[in-house]
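Database export, one record per block. Field names are fixed; values are copied verbatim from the stored entry.
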Amino acid sequence: MEKNVAKVYSAELEGINAKLIEVEVDLNVGLHSFNIVGLADKALNEAKERVNSALKNSGTKPPNRQNRKITVNLAPADIKKTGSQYDLAIALGYLVATEQIGEFEADDKIFVGELSLDGRLRPVNGALNIAEMASEENFKYLFLPKENSSEAVVIEGIKVIPVGSLEETIEILEKKKPAIPEVFKGMLREASEETHGPDFSEIKGQENAKRAMTIAASGGHNLLMSGPPGVGKSLLAQAMVEILPDLSIDEAIEITRIYSAAGVNKSGLIKKRPFRSPHQTASVAAVVGGGSQPKPGEISLAHLGVLFLDELPEFQKNILGALRQPLETGNVHIARVKDTLVFPARFTLVAAMNPCPCGFYGDAEKECRCSAYEVIRYQKKISGPLLDRIDLQIKVPRVKVKELRENKSSELTSWKIKKEVEAVRKIQNERFKNLKIRTNAEMSSKQAEHFANLDSSAEKFLATLDKTRLSPRGYYRLLKTARTIADLDKNEKTLASHLSEAFGYRLREET
């Protein structure tokens, strides 16, 4: 007797988290119809045509050749279903309902994949996120397109079965072909002195900026560079990602989850820290995240890496305002009517700006053409609360032509700085091993007071700050930066010299 109802499992992405979806297929007597219910979007409703053609070209009897009323229900019905990843599950559910496929255990398997008209499987977004959910829900197998397997296999507790077509999936389920799980081959990264971006040794002069970059990379601190056009601010920012420590496997998974959900990951597990540089004309949704189908924005894509904002005052005011929360908490909240999505955004902000509209205010060699009002108005585009969250604020001066023409390269290579940064990060890993933070910049105010470990000279230096306009937030950020400088000096105590240097990395006068 023909079965009338079949159930298989698939998944839906909400933000960067996957949710389990039941795909129920019901057959009823009546004129032919094929309906998908369960809050499906247009792309999902078009699955009917893809499934029809894929089934026909895979040697099975498709729905449009059956005089049956076919209903596909995607449960739970109150979750909006988007995308094309349900094609494979719908096709298999239909084959089970019409007894065109042999019996198989469906309760321990999840199926995702978009079908082409000839039955081949195309890759989908969020493979790693779906594998993570499948493992948490105690499923044994995840069937998905071959292109997604190298990404999903990093999750433990789930067997990832890569398949190339609907026909191959049927053969595996009917045990005509063995199910060969994908094998995780590790990070496959070897230590190398080669860099993909500019090397610090190639950047002439700017020793103060390089020191600030080293501190920022070591402690995860935010950095603002101000200087005339063409002095190397963008080059310095691009070089910074090369001195950040290599990713651990857990960090690589964190970043890949975000990239996979955003649909911008095409190469399996991400092995390098991200460097994101959105243009000044980017929208709020593009930078912060959101949209009609909420996806991570640039600040989330920069998670555990560098977010570079060139010409900072030229960004929209609401974008700069939206940066304040993630700079403080490491997360961005996207509010919707039914739910609030949370995207990770623990990035190091590196920003660059000119001191005025023409770019030459304060320059020793070229006269500024701006009025005092224009200079103040331009600088006021960066709000006080945002500046307060930027630990290191430095001026990047013009480098003399004579210094540029010198052939000798700096001995301070990106490789050497990276080794120094990694040593400091190792100190912080040991310091925070029982806490859910990685770097000094992530410390709370209470933790900053505790781990600062000030000596008597540092206590005396802090007493002199009562006459400044340093805010409470600025005070705690000063402690965090000083702690990183002390770590670079391999000093267990924070000295007055460390606090003094940290206090010196400010553009604004605090007195």
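Remark 1: The CA atoms of residues 215 and 485 lie 7 Å apart.
Remark 2: Residues 443-511 form a domain with the Helicase, Ruva Protein; domain 3 fold (CATH 1.10.8).
End of record.
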